Amino acid sequence: MINSPKLLVKAALLSSCIISALSGVAIASSSDKDVTPGFNQKIPEEIMTPNRVETRIGELNFYDGIPTDETLTKVYDNLDFVRGIDVFLNFIPATSVEGIRLGFKSLGVEDSNEVLVFDNLMDSNPLFLTGNTDTVYAGAMLDLEKDGVTVVEIPAGAGPGTLNDAFFRFVVDMGAPGPDAKKGGMYVILPPDYQGDLKPTKNGMADRGSDTRATIMVGDKEQKVWIAQSKSYNNWLILRGFLKDGKPDHASNMWRTGLKIYPLADAKNPKKMEFTNGSGKYFNTVHANDYKFYEELWHVIQKEPVSFIDPELRGQAAAIGIEKGKPFEPDARMKAILKDAVAVGNATARSIAFKTRDKSAYMFEGKQWFTGFIGRDYRWLKDGGNGGRNMDARTLFFYLATVNTPAMALQVPGVGSNYAMTTGDSKGEILYGEKNYKVTLPADAPAKDFWSMVAYDPQTRSELQVPGGSKYPSKNNKRDELIYNDDGSVTLYFGPDAPKGLEANWTETTPGKAWFAMLRLYGPLQPWFDKVWQPSDFELVK
């Protein structure tokens, strides 16, 4: 407490000075010439929008931050355009499965008891994303909405087999990389909306060799089965059988006599299996690259449950007019924008697939070979998910290929398969069909089962069709009688002209067209994973 009169006077004077000083600050602040016009303070520039902005879509104009009508038109056209591109890039997996379903249907293969088997291998007649010429494919479409819980019986001796859902997500492996480990067995597939007592079993690579099966009633018998659940109604089953003595007969017979698919409810009296030979037939399984792409996607969305994709993806599709239970009827403006968007989306996918800018894709230092499985994660997650999903990696894979399985990404010696692709020669130039090239594979190729090299067409991403009529644009160390070099290596030749005396090592190409190559190793071994064994680049033969 202040009792002295002198001290009271001094205190009063001090208070007066402080008040005057503070008042001066306030007055100075409000009269500061840096105050933003129209405001009482200086507003940070980074939160303001100028009345005129130059962008890649042209000049954008605003009145005090509110867009003009002309700018609204530009911005909304651009927004719909961008969303159309996003839908194309992000839904390639879905339309690719739909393309396969439609292709199978065109051959009369539609119900689950109907199987397309390539008795004489897949040749260059069908349009099928990077199909191989080296294994005997057996494929079927499962409709879990129509059939409910479905049983798949796999014969012993089956090579790599996989069930993928309608977004090309992995459901379960079968055969060599599956839990049956090539011994065969019974698999039960649950629909996405299944509410019964059956529960998925452990079916992963780590479970191979241990019996994780459940015991259930199949018909009137107790059976031990592996159980998996899909997120979609439509599912693609694709199985591969290996050649025996370089011939497909054994594998073809294995599928025709040992593969069984039927609804669990019909197990006591299943429909007879029907097999259609796909060898030598033309049919198309490749998704559209034009406006029809969106129509294909609409059909997928109508078929599948809402839970088939997450709200983020559902929102992308809905933003351009594709929703479950609603017609897809864009007006003239929107249709024109989507035609433009799919053209740019397709160009983007082709750039990512054929000339990726992701340096981690390239497998060997200084060489052109790259992997289609960037990051070695079948979900395309970066750093286990910490880096999110590698969208470009997913686009690269599904624009060029089919079948999604961990077995293609994991480094397990002797199990599954690994691939390497190249779209250019040693200088990075396009591989031209009118030019001759050679590529050398060192001795002791690290493939327990076999290796192959296949040439593909960049337009269709399917096996290359050639003027000479060769059905198989490939070489296979188990099927072909190749001529090896003295050191055990083998040099393969690609071009319009067969090298004299080395015709056995030659694959014909088509003048006036480009092509790209894929090296497959079935049962890859440690030297491949360690990168101590490397193919050469393609070299121009002059």
UniProtKB/TrEMBL annotation:
Residues 418-525 form the DUF1214 domain. Keywords: Signal. SUPFAM superfamilies: VPA0735-like. It comes from the Bacteria. Residues 113-263 form the DUF1254 domain. Residues 1-28 form the signal peptide. It holds the Pfam family DUF1214. PANTHER family: BLL3101 PROTEIN (PTHR36509), SIGNAL PEPTIDE PROTEIN (PTHR36509:SF3). This is DUF1254 domain-containing protein. It comes from Shewanella eurypsychrophilus.
